[in-house]
Design goal:
This protein has 434 residues and is of the alpha/beta class. It is 31% helix and 16% strand. It has helices spanning 11-22, 63-73, 77-84, 97-110, 139-149, 194-206, 227-231, 284-291, 316-319, 344-362, 375-383, 411-430; strands at residues 3-7, 26-31, 54-57, 86-87, 92-95, 114-118, 129-131, 154-159, 163-165, 174-176, 187-192, 259-265, 272-275, 302-304, 308-313, 332-334.
């Protein structure tokens, strides 16, 4: 019986291993933790969420909401575990970070077709193999992949937000509310008036940053822009971004605040909050000093400070096909953020498609045709599009999904129609027992 190796037990690797195993294939899952961790990893379990505990919007009118629904219907391990460990976050799917990782780990280790091997892999194995070592691939494996392709990686910098204890937030200066009162009030809102905001902004711009080798503002992925980088772009950049007050009313004044910092639950115990949009690479004492200028966080207890790390990704359009496989050798595939998909859900989707395709190859079945009308298919087609000259990491969005044949003026209605079309196509694919 053929055994498929999966290298890396992050979101993409765990998803890939699960999908292969569910199709009756023996899987050897290699993970370098707990013996070795990257600077951004903190726990020994699989599918660790590094930057945030949010898997973003959950509405079908939102492209990532569509991608999540596709994965749910396709039997995704990541979405099953995320739904089982979710915490309140308004219209977003956020999870208990540790609970999610624990559940993924338990399911992987208890699957009879998966053998977990705790060891760092430092060479590209012969196929069949799916390499999902992530954007934080170890130096040895990164070098090995470079030798394998004979090409340089691209790279960008990514950042994580700090966490504070719930009990240390001054709720006399904060309140629970979701923007526009959508759903239950799932965010703690920390208001600032004009004077407080301007003082905070000035200190944030001038705060001392930690040294990150090779870092420049232009190399930061837009979706995880450090808050201090945003601050340097203009006085109102934060107020139109993560600190926007629109749709919120301060109960102490009955008015919309000048700026609002939102906190989101990070665990099911409701004991830790994430500072939404506050990815940073300031030095730790500077984070404490500057972020404590937010009135509700004056005495905040930081249980984790923000960090920045270099993420690497392949020049995938030149190297990979629509199934994330090496164009020269279809039994060597890659998955996750190293392929140029950006985001937790996108990483899981790449692991899913790479695994479903690999299963078809080793079992002698026809490759499944996920078209551009589906979010899963659109991502694979994006990272393999040879016409792209300046390839950059991409979150799922409706612009890379095939447009409708008929015109619909209202954006929400158009997006919903695209989503419904996608799900109809997906159901037809799933009926073929792919």
């Amino acid at each position: 019986m053929t055994t498929v190796k999966v290298i890396g037990a992050g979101l993409a690797g765990a998803e890939a291993a699960w999908q292969l195993a569910q199709r009756g294939i023996q899987v050897e899952l290699y993970e370098m933790k707990p013996e070795k961790k990257s600077p951004a990893h903190h726990v020994d379990t699989f599918a660790e969420l590094v930057c945030s505990n949010s898997l973003r919007g959950d509405r079908l009118e939102n492209a990532v909401g569509l991608l999540k629904e596709e994965l749910r219907r396709a039997g995704s391990l990541v979405l099953t575990c995320a739904d089982a460990t979710k915490v309140e976050a308004g219209g977003c799917l956020a999870v208990d970070r540790q609970g999610f990782s624990d559940l993924v780990t338990d399911k992987i280790k208890s699957h009879p077709n998966i053998t977990v091997i705790s060891r760092e892999i430092t060479e590209v194995p012969e196929g069949p193999v799916i390499i999902a070592t992530g954007p934080l691939t170890s130096d040895a494996m990164s070098d090995a992949i470079g030798r394998y392709f004979g090409a340089d990686y691209l790279h960008f910098f990514d950042a994580a937000a700090p966490l504070v204890t719930a009990e240390s937030v001054d709720m006399t200066k904060a309140w629970w509310q979701s923007r526009y009162d959508r759903g239950t009030p799932d965010y703690v809102n920390c208001a600032m008036n004009k004077e407080e905001y301007e003082a905070f902004l000035q200190e944030l711009i001038n705060a001392e940053e930690a040294e990150v080798h090779g870092f420049e503002d232009k190399n930061v992925f837009e979706g995880c822009m450090p808050v201090e980088v945003m601050a340097r772009r203009g006085a109102d950049t934060l107020r139109f971004g993560p600190l926007k007050p629109v749709g919120l009313v301060d109960p102490s004044t009955g008015k919309e605040p000048y700026a609002v910092v939102q906190l989101r639950l990070d665990n099911a115990a409701k004991s830790v909050y994430n500072l939404v949009g506050f990815q940073t690479h300031l030095k730790f004492p500077e984070q404490k000093r500057v972020f404590s200028m937010i009135p509700a966080l004056k005495n905040a207890e930081f249980v984790r400070y923000g960090v920045m790390h270099r993420n690497t990704f392949l020049q995938s359009p030149k190297l990979l096909d629509r199934y994330y496989a090496d164009r020269r050798n279809p039994l060597v595939a890659f998955a996750g953020q190293m392929t140029g998909v950006e985001g937790y859900v996108e990483s899981a989707a790449s692991g899913y498609l790479a695994a479903v395709a690999m299963a078809a190859k080793v079992q002698g079945r026809q490759l499944p045709d996920f078209p551009k009308e589906t979010a899963i298919g659109a991502l694979g087609l994006y990272i393999s599009d040879e016409s792209i000259e300046n390839f950059q990491p991409m979150n799922i969005n409706f612009s890379i999904i095939a447009p409708l044949e008929k015109r619909i003026k209202k954006k929400a209605e158009k997006n919903l129609a695209i989503a419904n079309r996608s799900l109809e196509i997906l159901e037809q694919l799933l009926a073929q027992n792919i």
